[in-house]
Prior knowledge:
It contains 7 helices and 7 strands, in the order ββαββααβαααββα. By secondary structure, it is an alpha+beta fold. The strands form 2 sheets. The protein has a 5-stranded mixed beta sheet, sandwiched between helices. The chain is globular.
Amino acid sequence: QGRLVDVANRTDLTEKKLGATRKAALDKVGEDNMIVFKPKIGKYKVSIFTDIDCGYCRKLHSEIDQYMAEGITIQYLFFPRAGKGSDSYDKAVSVWCAKDRNLALTAAKNNQSCDKKTCANPVDKHMQMAEEFGAQGTPMIVTENGNVSPGYVPAKQLAEILQAEKAAK
């Protein structure tokens, strides 16, 4: 139990392996099963487990234009922390089933009510994946390398993290 650490190089070998596993799992889900906000010129991509009713998730989404300006593609997956059958869960399903998911997500994050809808959706799979990834809260940001940044990270700071991650490849 615990983490395997290369003491000489000061690297967490467990996290490196988990990162690769998370990346593969997200690749398997695919963009078609996420709500994606793409900048005109994309430099980076992150997957974010979000809860429509989470304050910091709303803050992050209210700054979506800043993330776009930094060239960060945002791929949203749902993790309604209150669980299946909760109001947050129902909102996630309704957003997924909306004609324009991006518009519906933005409206829901702005506390605007959306029509309650149901359809085939990936919300349960998103929730299961978040739990497998060890999500303890939202937003949970997963980078292209599978590294996790728990919580809200401002756009400029996230761009710096992603740039450093790319340079370290």
